[in-house]
């Protein structure tokens, strides 16, 4: 009996992972019953979570061995700390070891994160660097597929992780950017970036514009079934001929063409990064 379709965005990280993997194959690693928490939050008056907001599960997708890593955006804005980052990096590293041992383990990354956890600062940054290295290693063997849906989006160092993925799937509700709207407003002023201007924010970093400008490969509706279909499409493509992160000459040329004395807007972004001329 086919699964009834449902919103992907409204699911928790754990349920997103469970619904994507083949029925009955979900097996969580270091689940909340292991009580692995961040040691840095409670001393700062923050209630920790037993999984530190990071869900790692193994199972099968479309009948093939798969590891799925899902960030819980509800906990501390999906921020990355020492423990959550170590869980993600280790899972990717073990998937690469599987592939080197002849077990073609697929990897799915569900991004719902504001980036590094400020309360853990350098520890979070170091963990994100390990994640970047692990993605680059693993994507030599199998496509590493990222999905960002909403409502937190994908920002900070984890937006770089999304950019390193072999393929990236987004919804229209998703957002993707190096710096979050509130960070830009705080540092550059409201005249530069009004974090409460939602139409402007989505016109610059929303899933639809990121897809149209070539920073994402597939855009889907907010639907579990549509997300799963997009994942299958990416997997069927195999390893991409050209990775976005290897095409730096193209992007540097585009960035150098920007007149920074003028306020950037959606039209400027479209004119510079419009889909069609990237190899």
UniProtKB/TrEMBL annotation:
UniProt keyword annotations, A-Z: Transferase
Coiled coil: none
Domain CoA carboxyltransferase N-terminal span(s) in chain numbering: 1-189
InterPro entries named in the record: AcCoA_carboxyl_beta, ClpP/crotonase-like_dom_sf, COA_CT_N, Malonate_beta
Pfam families to which the protein is assigned, alphabetical: Carboxyl_trans
NCBIfam families the record matches: malonate_beta, PRK07189.1
Record-linked PANTHER family: ACETYL-COENZYME A CARBOXYLASE CARBOXYL TRANSFERASE SUBUNIT BETA, CHLOROPLASTIC (PTHR42995), MALONATE DECARBOXYLASE BETA SUBUNIT (PTHR42995:SF1)
Protein name stated in the entry: Biotin-independent malonate decarboxylase subunit beta
Organism listed in the record: Frischella japonica
């Amino acid at each position: 009996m086919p699964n009834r379709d449902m919103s992907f965005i409204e699911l928790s990280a754990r349920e997103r992972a469970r619904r994507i993997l083949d029925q009955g194959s979900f097996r969580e690693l270091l689940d909340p019953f292991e009580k692995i928490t961040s040691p840095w939050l409670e001393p700062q008056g923050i209630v920790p979570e037993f999984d530190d907001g990071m869900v790692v599960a193994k199972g099968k997708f479309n009948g093939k061995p798969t590891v799925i890593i899902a960030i819980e955006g509800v906990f501390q804005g999906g921020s990355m700390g020492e423990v959550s980052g170590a869980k993600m990096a280790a899972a990717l590293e073990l998937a690469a070891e599987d592939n080197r041992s002849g077990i073609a383990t697929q990897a799915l990354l569900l991004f719902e994160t504001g980036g590094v956890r400020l309360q853990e600062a350098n520890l979070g940054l170091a963990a994100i660097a390990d994640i970047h290295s692990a993605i680059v290693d693993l994507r030599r063997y199998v496509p590493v597929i990222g999905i960002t849906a909403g409502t937190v989006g994908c920002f900070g160092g984890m937006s770089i992780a999304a950019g390193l993925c072999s393929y990236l799937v987004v919804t229209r509700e998703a957002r993707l950017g190096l710096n979050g709207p509130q960070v830009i407003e705080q540092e550059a002023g409201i005249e530069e970036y009004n974090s409460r201007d939602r139409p402007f924010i989505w016109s610059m970093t929303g899933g639809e514009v990121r897809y149209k400008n070539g920073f994402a490969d597939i855009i889907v509706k907010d639907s579990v079934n549509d997300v799963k279909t997009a994942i299958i499409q990416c997997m069927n493509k195999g390893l991409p001929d050209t990775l976005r992160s290897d095409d730096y000459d193209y992007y540097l040329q585009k960035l150098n063409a920007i007149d920074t004395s003028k306020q950037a807007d959606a039209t400027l972004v479209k004119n510079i990064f419009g889909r069609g001329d990237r190899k």
